Automatic annotation (TrEMBL):
Keywords associated with the record: DNA-binding, Transcription, Transcription regulation
Name of the protein in its database record: LysR family transcriptional regulator
Domain (HTH lysR-type) ranges: 6-63
Stated role: NodD regulates the expression of the nodABCFE genes which encode other nodulation proteins. NodD is also a negative regulator of its own expression. Binds flavonoids as inducers.
Gene3D superfamilies on file: Periplasmic binding protein-like II, Winged helix-like DNA-binding domain superfamily/Winged helix DNA-binding domain
GO MF: DNA binding; DNA-binding transcription factor activity
PANTHER family per the UniProt record, alphabetical: HTH-TYPE TRANSCRIPTIONAL REGULATOR LRHA-RELATED, TRANSCRIPTIONAL REGULATOR
A Pfam family hit: LysR_substrate
Domain of life: Bacteria
Family: Belongs to the LysR transcriptional regulatory family.
Length: 286
């Protein structure tokens, strides 16, 4: 015998009566007539061949069968709404311009974009990687969204997570023992560049700028060959390098904040991607 099909409209009426403990209040909440709600509940009871409420002149209470059904009804209605929303959103189209730091753009964001595009195949995402210190100034003009790095304590944008800046060097060479210390860094405007120089100067550690590049992979390759030390994020620390600490004679570096910036008047497509990135990247408050 096939199980009866439970119409979402009937379940909605049932849940409303169960929550309000009144056919009158349920009808008002659903913007329907009381007789219509009563009829829908009666139809549901007939399909299930069970009494869902104990009715009296003063109260409406769930029966044992009604109590057993309520949780399932809520789940069915929730899944129904989720399915409808997903199907409708699946047809959302548009273009989103995303700016992000090089390491996040190569290691962190791509799998998140894969998941996003799977749900919204008609949305086209254009991603640019590089120094984000100037990207936020071009929000709305060149970018819809920017994932940028800031010193701790900034209030602009939405905080996603914190990252500890750490020194890194070759696994095969003790380059940190050289004097002056060769350093591979990024161009002016990079937060890690200014932090590294300031930390070494404050520690009275002689150093020289051995290599400068916009390319994260190039800087890390120089460090991996033992030609210089560099600075990377703890969360994206490359396996080809070795972490340096105070035991290696290196001064401690500050922590950075990773924040999402949204342009004003975002399109629906951009808002969807922004919410997806926040949900995936935001660390729970400790």
């Amino acid at each position: 015998m096939n199980a009866p099909i439970m119409d979402p409209d009937l379940l909605q009426a049932f849940v409303a009566v169960a929550e309000h403990r009144s056919f009158t209040r349920a009808a008002s909440a659903l913007n329907r007539t009381q007789s219509a709600v009563s009829m829908q509940v009666k139809r549901l009871e007939e399909r299930l061949q069970a009494e869902l409420f104990h009715r009296s002149t003063s109260s409406v209470d769930l029966s044992a069968a009604g109590e057993g059904l309520l949780g399932y009804a809520r789940r069915i209605l929730s899944l129904n709404a989720e399915a409808v929303g997903r199907v409708r959103a699946h047809g959302t189209d548009g273009r989103v311009r995303l700016g992000v730091m090089d390491d996040y753009g190569t290691m962190i964001v791509p799998p998140l974009l894969k998941d996003f595009i799977a749900g919204y195949p008609l949305i086209h995402v254009e991603m640019e990687t590089g120094l984000t210190s100037t990207m936020t100034d071009r929000l709305g003009e060149a970018y819809d969204l920017v994932i940028a790095m800031h010193p701790e304590g900034r209030v602009e944008g939405e905080l996603l997570r914190t990252e500890q800046a750490v020194w890194a060097a070759s696994t095969a060479h003790r380059v940190e023992e050289l004097d002056p210390l060769p350093v591979a860094l990024y161009p002016q405007g990079c937060l890690f560049r200014s932090w590294a120089m300031q930390a070494l100067d404050q520690a009275n550690r002689p150093w020289r700028l051995a290599f400068v590049s916009h390319s994260l992979s190039a800087v890390e390759a120089i460090a991996a060959q033992g030609l210089a030390v560099t600075v990377v994020k703890s969360g994206t620390f490359p396996p080809t390098l070795r972490r340096l600490t105070a035991r290696d004679g290196m001064p401690r570096l500050p922590r950075a904040e990773i924040r999402l910036h949204r342009a004003q008047n975002l399109s629906h497509a951009a808002s969807l991607l922004a919410d997806h990135l926040v949900a995936a990247l935001r660390q729970p408050a400790s």
